């Protein structure tokens, strides 16, 4: 099904929160999630190089021993994706897509989290530590990761345009099996960024999941941890799912994650409405109220995705895109020279090259 308009007319046009969830309901087998499945273009339009399908299914158990039909238990990850997700929290077997739902977004280094949480007298003190430092550092890590993803899309595009032109032809012709996954990830992410502010879905499967629930009590049985068509975030759905690590394409019978998680599932469903600006190098966040009857504040987030500057150096783009958080030359974390312990401070949350956009969250 091709879709450019909401699936139904909402009672509250600016509403769209997935609704309240009970404790740990996000891990239950019957809670619904969505992913973006990207495939070679069906060439409905000459400029399109990818086709986008949003899939909504039950989470499943995430356990090989009790696979749930019609759930993300059926989605087995490729080895590359499993290795990329080793540092991320999971609830289930590491080769099942369902184990990584909901998305955690970026995660801080375990050793730093241990330092922030150690030797605290009570849970209240722990909340003070995390409130003062965790949120700030994680927000800056958001900016770094989005900036690195932008650099990756630029580098891969320059690579196939200037050095490996045969790969661009293979990409546009849908011969994706012949393209290295790192380069293919960047090319697909670039396509999503280019259309990030528009609802460019080609197909929506399982539409009934998006219909309004009759009452809030139904969330106990029909919980949906998803972006709904009534949400302002629906227009940037492809971009939101990409940044949450909920965007995939298939390699054979297995699923390959296009980008590691940056935002969490809750952040894309309840907090941020994402769009793209092609004329700026800096992001912007604006606060707005999405319901006057029941005040709910959300944030319209504009991410920069300008044309690649002529002064851009391909090797610099690659160096920034692949920079490790804990290693030189561009580490995110700062450590004590005497003890090698993490300090509560950060270094490269933005690119050392001024022409690479600084994002915002």
Mean pLDDT: 84
Strand content: 15-25%
Elements, N to C (H/E)? EEHHHHHEHEEHEEEHEE
Shape: globular
Major pleated sheet: 5 strands, mixed
- Share of helical residues: 25-40%
Distance between the termini: 32 Å
Please count the beta strands (DSSP E, at least 2 residues each): 10
The number of helical elements comes to: 8
Unreliable sequence segments: 1-6, 8-15
Overall SS class: alpha/beta
Strand order of the largest sheet: 3-2-1-4-5
Descriptive account of the structure:
The chain has 361 residues and is of the alpha/beta class. Helix content is 27%, strand content 16%. It has eight helices and ten strands. The chain has helices at residues 79-84, 110-117, 123-163, 165-172, 181-194, 237-243, 265-271, 314-321; strands at residues 32-40, 50-58, 203-204, 247-251, 254-257, 272-277, 284-289, 297-304, 333-335, 342-346. It has a five-stranded mixed beta sheet with strand order 3-2-1-4-5. Strands 6-8-7 form a three-stranded mixed beta sheet. Strands 9-10 form a two-stranded antiparallel sheet. A hairpin with a 7-residue loop joins strand 7 (284-289) and strand 8. Helix 3 crosses helix 4 (165-172), helix 3 (123-163) packs across helix 5 (181-194) and helix 3 (123-163) packs antiparallel against helix 8. The protein is globular and about 50 Å long.
């Amino acid at each position: 099904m091709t879709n450019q308009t909401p699936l139904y007319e909402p009672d509250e046009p600016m509403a769209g929160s997935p609704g309240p969830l009970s404790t740990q309901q996000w891990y239950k087998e019957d809670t619904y999630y969505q992913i973006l499945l990207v495939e070679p273009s069906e060439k409905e339009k000459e400029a399109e190089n990818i086709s986008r399908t949003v899939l909504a299914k039950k989470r499943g158990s995430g356990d090989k021993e009790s696979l749930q039909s019609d759930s993300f238990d059926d989605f087995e990850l490729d080895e590359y994706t499993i290795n990329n997700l080793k540092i991320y929290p999971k609830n289930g077997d590491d080769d099942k897509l369902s184990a990584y739902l909901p998305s955690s977004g970026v995660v801080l280094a375990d050793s730093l989290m241990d330092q922030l949480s150690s030797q605290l007298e009570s849970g209240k003190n722990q909340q003070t530590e995390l409130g003062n430092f965790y949120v700030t550092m994680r927000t800056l890590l958001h900016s770094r990761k989005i900036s690195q993803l932008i650099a990756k899309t630029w580098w891969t595009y320059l690579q196939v345009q200037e050095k490996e032109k045969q790969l661009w032809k293979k990409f546009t012709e849908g011969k994706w099996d012949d393209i290295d996954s790192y380069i293919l990830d960047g090319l697909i992410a670039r396509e999503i960024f280019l259309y990030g502010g528009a609802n460019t879905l080609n197909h929506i499967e399982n539409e009934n999941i998006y219909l309004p629930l009759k009452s809030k009590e139904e969330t106990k049985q029909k919980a949906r941890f998803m972006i709904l068509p009534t949400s302002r975030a629906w227009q940037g759905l492809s971009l939101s799912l990409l940044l949450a690590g909920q965007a995939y394409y298939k390699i054979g019978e297995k699923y390959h994650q296009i980008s590691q998680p940056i935002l969490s599932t809750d952040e894309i469903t309840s907090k941020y409405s994402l769009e793209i600006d092609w004329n700026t190098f800096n992001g912007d966040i604006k606060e707005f109220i999405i319901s006057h009857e029941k005040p709910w504040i959300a944030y319209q987030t504009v991410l920069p995705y300008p044309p690649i500057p002529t002064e851009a150096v391909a090797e610099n783009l690659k160096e920034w895109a692949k920079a490790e958080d804990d290693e030189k030359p561009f580490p995110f974390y700062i450590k004590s020279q005497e003890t090698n312990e993490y300090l509560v401070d950060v270094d490269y949350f933005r690119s050392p090259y001024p022409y690479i956009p600084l994002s915002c969250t």
